[in-house]
């Protein structure tokens, strides 16, 4: 006990303990960080799921158009026109979403498109999901284009039509190719959600800023937020590394 008492009497340690108590213990402010972390992970997880759903659809449309444009153009007909329109819509979506900042998209979603929706977390999930979908779509498209054309021919020889070939043969192989890159997109999206506080969502970054506003001490809460993000990113990076090694081993 005397050792800890002497340790506490050291000036800088005593000051650190006082600031730690002020920022995290008093008023149970540590719970703000915990709640903010939960909101951040919730937004990230569901936004990734929405982004994957959007990305798969857009990647299939764009890769189908790129692979079959010549043959469809020769045959003409309504199918070629519809596919061309869908491809143009997808390209417009990719251009707009990838060409504008995510924080601006979030503000437009919250204050214009979904102004009548009271659940800010839901709006954030939709906004980040739509944003992520544009990047995931290009990841998936590159994965589909990397699949050998012989796989498409094998599907046709089994009696599958084009859609069945994509669903049962190409897309599963594509996921294996792009899975590490997709995991990295999850990490990027996790950090991008730090702007959710612009629309009043109590995410991890907003929680740190609220503590700073209450205690007038910026150093400790903001450093704590940065460290939490760093630990999460390091954890997911380690998991992605293990996943990549396992996928490489499964190819042998």
Task: Supply database-style keywords.
252 residues, 10 helices, MetI-like fold, mainly alpha
Topology:
Blueprint: H1 2-9, H2 11-25, H3 30-75, H4 78-99, H5 102-113, H6 120-146, H7 149-157, H8 162-192, H9 204-215, H10 219-250
Helix pairs in contact: 3-4, 3-6, 3-8, 3-9, 4-6, 5-6, 6-8, 7-8, 8-10, 9-10
Describe the structure.
The protein has 252 residues and is mostly helical. The protein has one domain: Orthogonal Bundle (MetI-like fold), CATH 1.10.3720.10. Helices cover 85% and strands 0% of the residues. It is built from 10 helices and no strands. Helix 3 packs across helix 6, helix 5 crosses helix 6 and helix 6 crosses helix 8. The chain is elongated, with a radius of gyration of 24 Å. It starts with a helix and ends with a helix.
The dominant shape is elongated
CATH topology: MetI-like fold
Helix fraction by DSSP (H/I, runs of at least 4): over 70%
Report the CATH architecture: Orthogonal Bundle
Distance between the termini: 59 Å
| The CATH homologous superfamily | MetI-like
DSSP E strands, number: 0
Mean pLDDT metric: 84
The percent range for strand residues is under 5%
Biggest β-sheet description: none
> Quick one: CATH class?
Mainly Alpha
Q: Which class of secondary structure composition applies to the elements? A: mainly alpha
Number of domains: 1
Counted by DSSP, the helix tally is 10
Question: What is the N-to-C order of secondary-structure elements (H for helix, E for strand)?
Answer: HHHHHHHHHH
Low-confidence stretches: none
Radius of gyration: 24 Å
